[in-house]
């Protein structure tokens, strides 16, 4: 008998990073690592489950910027060259560690992983791995949804509804062109919700979206089911609230499964450990990570023990069992006070699985296999749940996000607040351009379309997040300044009637996202 439902959501997103001018641009590694360590391993998990007849249902959000990079021929060819370098390093590592009972099996493991990545990318998917997600969507195993066009943190653009509309409608259009239909759901970037955004989503054909837990819990008058059932907004859109307990067992640095001492250590890498004359051909910027990591987390110590694959697999089994056990405990108790089985909504960044948590894809596979043998807890799609339980509380969610402290602190603090006065001014100027040039053709239309692209790209939530976190801050600052500078040059050129064809063509080739974009979408 079913005691509860589980919506397991993977949100796959990367900012648009594409630098044709530099063959070895450091930040392009973000994409290559995610393909090798997250997206392809997850597709292999789905394939094994499907081949073994194991039913699974995952909601998978793919951001438009990530999709654009995955479809880009330049980046596809660069990824293959990246894999070839890693395979060359893998062969060297197999030879170097020969005879070492601890590290040689790990070198063989990496050679096998990168060999599989190249085979799958080139031979199975023809360099277009979105075909894999489309296949499992059509098989009924994935519900593929979208997010904002460039993953803008939407609450900070509430005062510009035309801009929010552009972020949402462009995303829906991009999804339709890739998957052939309008997405049923929408993953609000950073789960950033403000009252009223659901009206723009509804107008774009979206039925449901996800919010942070307090988006439902702080509803005036209370939420009937807490986060264990959706609420229906006054306009008919459904809002699903994130379950904090199931989130913490994977996200928490202290309590989460990925921090177990038996799992592979993310930070210890041969790029830092081995002599520079040996490793330098495989580095992009001095001492840096290669992806070859031979140590377990071990604990709060520099004296790491070698990674043991068998020990990690035992922990995967334990943690999959624990996830199901604790969710079932909660579900059984809630069943006593609810008129339906409770719904547990568990959204995560997809890149957690494989990239940050090496064992993550195998954990998902193990979880799905165990859930298939458990009648009490069933995986379900959001849209499927809404069909099964059409009667839900009508209520207005409240402003919220899944960022630190639950609101906008991460994307608006002393490290990054300076960006918004410039981006907001650019949005106002873009709306002005639409009014001034409502029906341009030829060169002017190209310039206006590119101006819209530059504004959208400047709004990626990744840039203020990086500034807040203090990681690759110079690159984030550079990106925002470049996009706004390009927009301003177009604005000034249109005002003076002197658009440089050569410069505009170069900019279009570099920032080639959303080829079908129509600048008129920015009407006020």
Give the structure's gist in a few sentences.
This protein is of the alpha/beta class.
Describe it.
By secondary structure, the chain is of the alpha/beta class. The protein has helices at residues 29-51, 64-70, 73-96, 104-124, 130-138, 161-179, 197-203, 213-217, 244-251, 270-273, 276-279, 309-335, 360-372, 382-388, 418-436, 442-458, 462-469, 473-496, 501-510, and strands at 4-12, 58-62, 142-145, 185-186, 208-211, 231-232, 238-241, 343-349, 377-379. The chain folds into 2 domains: 4-67 and 129-259 and 307-405, Glycoside hydrolase 38, N terminal domain (7-stranded beta/alpha barrel), CATH 3.20.110; 412-522, immunoglobulin/albumin-binding domain-like. The strands form 2 sheets. Strands 1, 2, 3, 8 and 9 form a 5-stranded parallel beta sheet that branches. Strands 4-5-7-6 form a 4-stranded mixed beta sheet, sandwiched between helices. It is globular and about 70 Å long. The termini are far apart.
Considering the chains and any ligands shown, give keywords for the structure.
single chain; 524 residues; alpha/beta; 2 domains; four-stranded mixed β-sheet; 19 helices; 8% strand; globular
Strand content: 5-15%
Q: Under CATH, the topology of the largest domain is which?
A: 7-stranded beta/alpha barrel
The average pLDDT score comes to 96
- The CATH superfamily name of the largest domain is Glycoside hydrolase 38, N terminal domain
Number of domains: 2
Low-confidence sequence ranges: none
What is the second-level CATH architecture of the largest domain?
A: Alpha-Beta Barrel
The main pleated sheet reads as: 5 strands, parallel
The coarse overall form would be globular
Report the CATH C-level class of the largest domain. Alpha Beta
Structural class: alpha/beta
Helical stretch count?
Answer: 19
Order of helices and strands: EHEHHHHEHEHEHEEHHHHEHEHHHHHH
What is the number of E strands?
9
Helix share bin:
40-55%
Distance between the termini: 52 Å
Report the radius of gyration as a whole number of Å.
24 Å
- What is the oligomer described by this structure? single chain
């Amino acid at each position: 008998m079913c005691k509860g439902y589980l919506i397991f959501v993977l949100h796959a997103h990367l900012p648009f990073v594409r630098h044709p001018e530099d063959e070895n641009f450091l930040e392009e590694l973000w994409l290559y690592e995610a393909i090798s360590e997250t997206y392809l391993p997850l597709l292999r998990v789905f394939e094994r489950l499907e081949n073994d007849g194991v039913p699974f249902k995952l909601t998978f959000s793919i951001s438009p910027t990530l999709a654009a990079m995955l479809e880009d021929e330049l980046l596809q060819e660069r990824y293959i060259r990246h894999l070839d370098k890693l395979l060359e390093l893998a062969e060297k590592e197999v030879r170097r560690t020969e005879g070492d009972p601890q590290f040689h099996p790990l070198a063989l493991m990496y050679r096998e992983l990168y060999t599989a990545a190249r085979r799958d990318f080139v031979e199975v998917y023809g360099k277009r791995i979105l075909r894999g997600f489309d296949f499992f969507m059509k098989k009924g195993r994935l519900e593929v949804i979208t997010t904002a066009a460039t993953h803008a943190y939407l609450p900070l653009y509430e005062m510009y509804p035309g801009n929010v509309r552009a972020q949402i409608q462009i995303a829906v259009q991009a999804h339709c062109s890739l998957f052939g239909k309008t997405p049923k759901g929408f993953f609000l970037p950073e789960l950033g919700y403000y009252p009223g955004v659901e009206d723009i989503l509804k107008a774009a054909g979206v039925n449901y979206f996800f919010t942070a837990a307090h988006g439902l819990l702080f509803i005036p008058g209370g939420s009937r089911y807490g986060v264990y059932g959706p609420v229906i907004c006054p306009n008919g859109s459904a809002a699903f609230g994130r379950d904090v307990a199931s989130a913490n067992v994977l996200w928490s640095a202290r309590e989460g499964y990925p921090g177990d001492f038996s799992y592979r250590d993310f930070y210890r890498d041969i790029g830092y450990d081995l002599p520079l004359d040996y490793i330098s051909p495989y580095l992009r910027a001095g001492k840096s990570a290669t992806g070859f990591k031979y140590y377990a987390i071990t604990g709060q110590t520099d004296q790491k023990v070698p990674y043991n694959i068998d020990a990690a697999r035992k922990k995967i089994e334990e943690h999959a069992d624990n996830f199901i056990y604790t969710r079932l405990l909660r579900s059984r108790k809630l069943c006593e006070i609810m008129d339906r089985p409770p719904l547990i909504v568990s959204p995560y960044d997809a890149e957690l699985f494989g990239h940050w948590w090496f064992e993550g894809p195998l954990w998902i596979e193990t979880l799905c296999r165990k859930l298939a043998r458990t009648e009490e807890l069933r995986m379900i799609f959001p849209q499927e749940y809404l069909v099964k339980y059409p009667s839900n509380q009508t209520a207005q969610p409240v402003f919220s996000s899944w960022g630190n402290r639950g609101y906008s602190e991460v994307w608006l603090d002393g490290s990054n607040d300076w960006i918004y006065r410039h981006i907001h001014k650019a949005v106002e100027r873009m709306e002005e351009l639409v009014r001034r040039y409502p029906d341009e053709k030829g060169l002017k239309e190209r310039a206006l379309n590119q101006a819209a692209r530059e504004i959208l790209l400047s709004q990626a939530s990744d840039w203020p997040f990086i500034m807040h976190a203090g990681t690759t801050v110079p690159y984030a600052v550079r990106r925002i300044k470049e996009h706004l500078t390009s927009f301003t040059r177009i604005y000034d050129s249109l005002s003076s009637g002197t658009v440089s064809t050569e410069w505009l063509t170069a900019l279009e080739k570099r920032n080639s996202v959303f080829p079908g974009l129509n600048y008129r979408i920015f009407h006020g």
